[in-house]
Input
Amino acid sequence: MRGQGAGLTPERMLAAYARGIFPMAETRDSADLHWVEPRQRGILPLDGFHVSRSLARRIRQGGAEIAVNRDFAAVVAACADRPETWINGPLATLYRQLHGMGHAHSLEVRREGRLVGGVFGVTLGRVFCGETMFSRETDASKVALAFLVDRLRQAGFALFDTQFLTPHLASLGGIEIAQADYLRRLAAALEGPAAEFAAPGIPSPQLLMQRMTQMS
Output
């Protein structure tokens, strides 16, 4: 897809996700996008999220406000605000367009009104394709992921695609599978009615931990 950064449409992007591929840019300043199809795919099993003792304490302490889709563009911008990023201008625009179509969502963590962490991704069928996350205070991205996993479970999602497996995701229960296995899971998760990301309510920290304990 080199040279087509400005020509990629949201509809074509969704069709690519349904085939197990996704676009990335080389750098923030690159005008081009390229298709990526990892040989090994990262996923986060929705029944296998690991909550460490320190993360459990932080969640129970509360003090953070959790919101969904309050400021999607700000979450994308925060995720791209790092020395090296694969989110260039055309890709950020595509994410915003997908959000407007109801196919991209953010989960945000705020403290005293300030955005301190979050995660965003693209949805189709019962698949959540996690793009990336950010953290401006200790464990904020982990807190976001805990609430995200709970939301995906409550909404009826079947597959949480993380694209790649990082040490951070592995510590939370993420695993790596062959792309062929991923494609089989993807096909199954695209069957039937689509899950609605925005439908479930936001649980209290106590209810979230109760659910997480029952899940483990």
